[in-house]
Design goal:
Largest sheet of chain A: 7 strands, antiparallel
CATH class of the largest domain in chain A: Alpha Beta
EC number (chains A, B): 4.2.1.-
Largest interface: A-B, 17 and 17 residues
Number of domains of chain A: 2
CATH topology of the largest domain in chain A: PSTPO5379-like
CATH architecture of the largest domain in chain A: 3-Layer(aba) Sandwich
Helix content of chain A: 10-25%
Protein name (chains A, B): Putative hydro-lyase GCM10011501_30320
Order of helices and strands of chain A: HEHEEEEHHEEHEEHEE
Shape of chain A: globular
CATH superfamily of the largest domain in chain A: PSTPO5379-like
Radius of gyration of chain A: 17 Å
Pfam families (chains A, B): D-Glu_cyclase
Family (chains A, B): Belongs to the D-glutamate cyclase family.
Oligomer: homodimer
Enzyme class (chains A, B): lyase
Number of helices of chain A: 6
């Protein structure tokens, strides 16, 4: 049912308070985006941070000019103030509130960034017959802080956050091939195998999301994750910032296949 | 020096007895081919075997009709009777002779098959900064019989032979990406990590070629190998068959880049 809803239907439900949870599994085939909204004076640094770290921060859209809340390139009638199910408000790097609409918080100097999300690559993996454990187990994908340093940009810096999906070797090879076609939704994995090589001490203890079962013979595979900019934001401590709540994404009208480079 | 020789120069030297060793490292940038020559009545089975097992048996050329010894699609003036440095003659599946010219063995019913070779993908890996251990150590690439069954075709069957190159995780990911672009020279690896999962008992004991050093932190990566059809031929035991000697390939005029699918 939820898979078959159109992006427009879902956004309309969200806007009118009929949908306030996560968007995983909704509108199959369409790109969903991570959202970061910053004051203009912080936007250039963040744009540079994305440009220098395209694997964790793949920029797929941004507002035309400061204060613009309509993101027409992302879909018909998209209003970033109301079309995300849940938002997080940060002040000086601290999460202060979670809200379902940011119209009353909107300011003329805010710039919106939309970043690609792993939902877009999980779909072709599943279509190819690869099991995605977090989906099978109905959990949020496990995410970990690593020791992989992002390239700094102005006031933004920090280590990469990765998501993890366990699979057998043959599926790892196939997943690398498939994800390589989708550089704007994190692309190929950044690591597989020994978690300690990238600074993860205990694979069963996640920093974000849920832990999932790793079966005998399976290898943990790690992708750059869109939570990375949230960690960089917490460290940079801009006076004001808005993001989506994890899993509660902007559903766009862009078909996933449009993000494939071949 | 040898890298800079043109394919035509090398074939001319070979034809006139001035080069009779292996062709590794010669004519950088040009495709080299594994050779299988069979009587017409065995050719269809072998063609089907290649079609069903494209990773170990990637067919890049064949003679236009039985008895035809000129392979013009492979290069200027290519004569398969004289342009390979060393050949192996098999009778009833048994190696009977190694010779430097097969003109006196030629028959009107012989069909020639040219199969892609790993030399073509080692080159873009090296260009990308990945160390190829067998080249660094000046050895023949290590090859192993596996328990991976090929798909049978008529009288041909057998298990896959793989070549192995050790590398660190980041290079494995990159090598999978690069080799995926070259499906007609074995394409992406078929396995990495635990050798026992594909029936290799001792990674230091090769079935063909030499063993190479695997350093701490490196993972053995396995590619489908062009020696696979030789094993299938030994099992099928056609009354007559000719192949190249390992490492002594047909040097073609085809640029490696022509085999890249993107």
């Amino acid at each position: 049912m939820k898979e078959a809803l159109s992006p427009q239907n879902i956004r309309n439900n969200i806007r009118h308070g009929k949908h306030d949870g996560n968007t995983s599994g909704y509108a199959n085939g369409f790109v969903q985006g991570n959202i970061v909204i910053l004051p203009k004076e912080w936007a250039n640094d963040f744009l540079l941070f994305c440009q220098r770290n395209p694997k964790p921060c793949p920029l797929i859209g941004m507002s035309s000019e400061p204060g613009d809340f309509l993101l027409t390139e992302m879909g018909q009638d998209v209003d970033i103030r109301s079309d995300v199910p849940q938002y997080r408000i940060f002040k000086d790097g601290l999460l202060t509130e979670e809200v379902k609409d940011i119209t009353t918080y909107w300011r003329d100097d805010l710039v919106t960034f939309v970043l690609g999300c792993s939902f877009s690559f999980e779909e072709p993996l599943i279509a190819d017959g690869i099991e995605i454990r977090n989906i099978t187990e109905n959990k949020n994908v496990p995410m970990y802080k690593t020791n992989i340093a992002c390239k700094s940009a102005g006031r933004f810096s920090g280590n990469m956050v990765v998501s993890m999906r366990p699979m057998v070797v043959a599926d790892v090879i196939r997943a690398i091939q498939i994800c390589t076609r989708f550089p704007s939704v994190h692309g190929a994995p950044v690591h597989f195998g020994a978690p300690e090589e990238i600074g993860i001490e205990n694979i069963n203890v996640t920093d974000f999301g849920d832990s999932v079962t790793i079966k005998p013979g399976e290898i943990p595979v790690f992708w750059a994750c869109g939570v990375t900019p949230q960690v960089a934001l917490e460290q940079a401590k801009p006076p004001f910032c808005i993001t989506h709540s994890p899993g509660c994404m902007l559903v766009t009208d862009i078909p996933n296949s449009k993000l494939s480079i071949m």
